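Exercise 7 asks you to align residues with tokens for two separate proteins.
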Amino acid sequence: MAVCEVCFRHCRLEEGQSGVCGARTCREGSIVPSGYGKITSLALDPIEKKPLARFMPGSLILSAGSYGCNLRCPFCQNYSISWSDAARRAAEEAEDVPPEKLAALAVRLRDRGNIGVAFTYNEPLVSYEYVRDTARLVRAAGMRNVLVTNGTASLQVLEELTPFIDAMNIDLKGFTDHYYRDVLGGDRAMVMDFIREAVKHCHVELTTLIVPGENDSEEEIRALSSWVAGLPGTAGGRGGEEVPLHITRFFPRFHMTDRPATDVGQIYRLAEIARGSLRYVYTGNC
């Protein structure tokens, strides 16, 4: 048996067994990423789609996804590659793309406006070793690395990546322990620790999806934006009030089709409240 140390779950795995994320397994007594180099999704995307509003706007980035995720968001739009049962099926169809191959593709696409590689679509940190190894090669080629993540990982994992990551979009999905624990199957404290450390090392933007009846109160967004504004020691000497926040609209998806899409007016109201603490607040899906 071995223990996975990537996230708060600390999955204890017998030989051949996979963790909750569906992308890490026990092999010869050690935890290894079964998703290493397995790519299910590949596209040349606008950087704004990550979403990043204040990092090289107008550029394109090669976006790569694998499979697996350590959260269980009932509204997941990428559940076919993220949730573990679906992830196992996705793994069977995934293309084997070693770090050298993905980095070389990023370089070949430079003439089309590509600035580097974004690790996205599923939760990339469940195969952080692949992110690290690929990002190192991309950086050596003079290109940029972007990480789109739920932030549910240890600071040790973050430390492995920070030398090579230029920008992150991190989900801060809500600001109550109840929401993270009982709805998402996550750990808010781990995400907050991850964000607090990440902003010291690279450009960071945050995203909060507003789900009706769950995290849509004015009190919660006020507390969330106030906490972000208080983040100390961000990269480039900026204060936490300069960390961009994307407040986005929910649409019924997957296992959460029991409620309507978020009211557009509510998104705008919550954004105005957040602007009381933060300089850069953006609305999405409206």
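Second protein for Exercise 7:
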Amino acid sequence: MAATTTRVGLVGYGLIGQAVRDMITSNDNGMEVVFIHDADTSRLDDLGDLALTDLADFDSRGADLVVEMAHPDVTRKWGTTILEKTNYMFISVTALADREVETGIEEATAKYGTRAFVPHGGVVGMDALLENRDIWESVDVVMKKPPKNVDCAAAGVDPDSITEETCLYDGPTRGICPMFPRNVNTHAAIAYAGIGFDRTHSLLLVDPAWSDATVAIHAKAPGVELHVERVEAITGVTGASTPASIYNTVQMIGSTGPGIHLR
């Protein structure tokens, strides 16, 4: 039986976007990149016909799936418009901390019969969080990073002024998302998979002495406890495992290639 090809559009062509594009094109996965868009149009200079300078023209490329790898503002501005035409996966999960955005996405999928996807990204154990979301009594997320690897602009913090271990946030996950929108998509995904943005507790610690990024999840329910920790190298605000993780989520959604597929 012949397999159809899944046509994928990429929004954001930085470190993650470039890596995901390379993985799609170098694997026999039944997927084809049909456009690439970036707000920094200089990144599109060598892409030829793949370059899409105006995202308003996305539907002209006939994508079966549009993947956002840029900033939560893309989902705020374009999420429902994209979902009117096709399926949408967004890695900037912090957009969902805005109730209006979340409601708009849910309503668009219901009206147009399209699907929105939240990738697991840096979350280890998302399936366990999701499966037990109705019984968790508490979910805590602890993130540790060097301050130079945290985009503090929205929080009004100068990372260069931090000289020792410092707590940048301690409270409900809904509050951390607008303060550090590029850094805490892991927190947002954990909250969405588990007990929500208001009941999930987030802690963000920074220390210039650290060189790696650590994310720990602690969830408790009657008779069940989940403790997971990931430690990895970090470039910019992105963990080393993120590009491969995002690609594999795209593959789970869109792959029509041969082989045995894990879902």
